[in-house]
Amino acid sequence: MSQSAVLQFPPPSAATSEAWLRDKLAYYADAWDVAQDLARGISDIVVLDTRSAEQYQAGHICGAVSFPHRTMTAETLSQLNSDKVYVTYCDGIGCNGSTKGAWKLAAAGFRVKELIGGLDFWLRDRHPVTQGEAAGEWPAQTMPEDCGC
């Protein structure tokens, strides 16, 4: 009988798992949840595209604001509203621009989450994007109540 590769490292207790998973959800948002909030006009969040201005103009999440992580300084961050929760994104899991942006925001005292999978996962889920310098408006379409996961 062979030993389980999964169980080679036993899982933590249920209470430890619950705490860790709750914390994980505090740090990340997925494309479905962000799309749902944008479609509903939730004003408590601001989606920040942390890629370059050129990449933003080529295509970005509808309603996202361009704020390249390389331009985040004490001076530029001081223009943000500390009552909002900022959701950062970049190209995808191979890009750490959203992490760098989120770190700068958190270090400056802002509440922040990262979008899992960035623009790549957003596009895979077929959520709307727009082009140009403006954030763009969320399209007048209804979203299903759940994503099936």
TrEMBL record:
The keyword Metal-binding does not apply. Pfam families: Rhodanese (PF00581). One of its GO terms (molecular function) is transferase activity. Keywords: Transferase. InterPro entries: GlpE_sulfurtransferase, Rhodanese-like_dom, Rhodanese-like_dom_sf. PANTHER family: FAD-DEPENDENT OXIDOREDUCTASE, PYRIDINE NUCLEOTIDE-DISULPHIDE OXIDOREDUCTASE. This is Probable rhodanese-related sulfurtransferase. It comes from Erwinia billingiae (strain Eb661).
